[in-house]
Design goal:
The complex is a heterodimer of chains A (about 220) and B (about 170). By secondary structure, chain A is α/β, with parallel strands linked by helices. Chain A is built from 6 helices and 7 strands. Chain A has a 7-stranded mixed beta sheet. The N and C termini of chain A lie far apart (about 85 Å). Chain B is about 50% helix and about 0% strand. In chain B, helix 3 crosses helix 4. The chains are: A alpha/beta (about 220), B mainly alpha (about 170).
Chain lengths: ~220, ~170
Amino acid sequence: MNWKRALLSTALIGAPLVALLTYGMTRDPHSIPSPLPGRDAPVFTRAVFAPGADSVLRLPVGDSVRLAAHRGEIVVVNFWASWCLACRDEHLDLSQTASAFAQKGVHFYGLLYNDQEKNGLRWISDMGGQAYPALSDPGARTAIDYGLYGVPETFVVDQRGLVARKFIGPVNALQLSALLDSLLVANQDSTRVGPANIPPDAGVTRPVVPAAAGAAKP
Amino acid sequence: MRRGLLVGVLVFVPRLHAAQSATTPATPAAATAQSVIVPPLPGVNLEFDARVKRIASRLRCPVCQGESIQDSPAELSTQMKTLVREQLANGKTETEVLDYFVAKYGQWILLEPRAEGINLLVYWLPVLFLVLGAGGLWLVVRKWTRVRPMPVASPTLQGMEATPVAVVVSE
């Protein structure tokens, strides 16, 4: 029978094709999967251009911040720009979370992406201040090093210097606090329980920095 | 401008020594940056420009996503191209430069996927389809052009085999 054969061949060729296209519909072609989470956070040395309002996080303008020196501490790196509308949505959440976690040794830095510092400063004052320091990123070097393709993007670097998570788009206080809390707790657990809890790769490439070292830091 | 570039290149010096404090006054950056080679300006070394262009044409612009950073006028593309120039000038091979961007953005950044793993499908499926299509076509054509024996006449037409069709119709 001819129609049977036609049906069979249509099913054989068409079904996988439709399945493939249907799968394609569930994917967002604009979202770029980042290879960074779980890997070493790219180190940077960047100058402060806005000091930050929080008394703990505050740094003098002109100082340079080095990520490598924060080993043993959690660092939140937020890329933003004054021309970025979504950055307005997350600003208050970021600033408040930064203040809330400042005493726990979590550092927040805002890296200005493809913008002028004077615009950044004006934006910060328009937004009612910012708890944490803002750093300049000339030539978007650090941004490219972090595989940035838009703002805002936020990277959380854990105590071992690994990228724990990348947030694309505005973050909110709830998800950020939850992540920071879990990282802080995980670190406490690993030091309390002892070597059994240290990941297998820890001794080879990067010895786990005990929480005590972070606390002893001035 | 040049100072900005030098400071920027510091990012690629892996693992700066950990110091007592996370912050230092901004001045001593230039000391470590002395070994960085500043790439020739565009148009000075045409062979170098060609190498940059070859790499830039293979990298996808993260902003526009449908263009290479060579073709894209976006600011980020220009900055990435500057980075390609610097990395090449400082002795990285073309593969190493591409690997750097793949490490940051994933394979997505390559306009042409690498022929490895699941990507092999992209390269070999067309060949497979071509072979299957050619085979199918050959079978069909053979069927079409096969010389068939005359069909056995139906009972109603018995005895009329010799009559030309045209005559049958006209009757």
